Amino acid sequence: MAGPLEQFEIHKLVDFPDMTLPFVGTVDLAFTNSHLAMTIVFVVIVGFLSLVTARPEVVPGRLQTVGEGVFGLIDNMTESMIGHEGRKYFPFVFTLFLLILGMNLLGLMLTFTATSQLAITVTFAILTFGLVMVIGVVKNGFGFLKLFWPMGAPLVMRPFVGLIELISFFLRPLTLSLRLFGNMMGGHVALKVFAGFVAAAAAGSLGIWLSAPVGLVSMSMVVALTALEFLVAFLQAFVFAILACIYLNDVVNLDHAH
Amino acid sequence: MAEPHEPVAAHSADGVQASTAAEHDSGGGVPQFEFQHWGGQIAYLLVLFAILYVLVSRVFAPRMRKVIDERAGAINGALAAAKQVQAEAQDQARVAQAEVADARAQSQRVAAEARAKAIAEAAERSAIAETEVSGKIAEAEVRIAAMRDRAMAEVGTIVTETTRAIVEKLTGQAATAAEVKAAGGAA
Questions:
Q1: Nearest Cβ partner of B64 from A32, A68, A127?
Q2: Is ipTM strictly over 0.85?
Q3: Do B56 and B46 sit in the same domain of this protein?
Q4: A5, B70: Cβ pair inside 8 Å?
């Protein structure tokens, strides 16, 4: 029987010759199960958006209502958190949200969850953090440093609070990536553990008396956890998008907020 | 569903050999820290992200916004039209109300005029009757006064004649009317 961590292993489906890059080292090029999951998510998202926007009508049908609901969710989020400039950053947040949500949900239907790979969540986090840094410096120049100089605090406290702000700012990519990674991995490990109990009970390896109760309790836990995981899948994508908006708002509206 | 299952199944069929190999690679046993797989995943994700970003910003978001704006326009247009119709209806109602009020005022005025006219006519008629009556009363009074005067005059004559007759009888002498009168007047 498969262990609870086996679902996170990467398997090469199609192997390509390794590539040696300067500074990076040897890169193992292959089309893996992770690539497959990402491809499915990408195709589903593009297909969904194409269907929704193919024949848009003023009175929307069912699919269009769902699509516009997702669109409006992120559109309102960027608009209300970043302000009138929010529209410029909508495509980034929308892409981020759709990819994370798609990978989270696909993980509940396949055996592989792309967002439970630290490589993937780190990429999302670095991408968001990098965009925030670039916009901060391009828009504000050296004024970017005002972000770490809390005008609301008493003068004596400002260096200390500023230091804390600086540290927390550079911890953002870490917290962003670990939050998503931990949630997805933890949920799937818990699911797999309970499902393992169900399998053991079904195989009769727990003995005559324990099999039925353990199997039933574990099975109901699997059902309940699956429902919970659907909630977590949406919530983590939503949280990631909200945090991206908050971080973008920090640097876009630096002059107004501080 | 079946396809992604296969590698897992195939892997577990490999048995102990494969899992020990994986553990050797990662060191800690958590597959996510097998860093030789990071480069390919990150590069692929960045490519997919870039393509999706361009598609969303160039194609999907403008299409969505167009429809949403169109809908907002249609709703606002319908609302404005409805408001205009409502305002028109209210105007018409106001005009009708004013007309009703006008008609009522006019009818009241006509009624009041008619009443005033009737009252005036009645008053005139009664005034004429009164003057007629009072004329007749005055005439009658004049006549009565004349009759009284005549009666009084006749009374005077009777007294004089009676006095003369009495005087003639008593004295055997006829007294003239002037004497009697003088005497009567002195008496």
A1: A68
A2: yes
A3: yes
A4: no
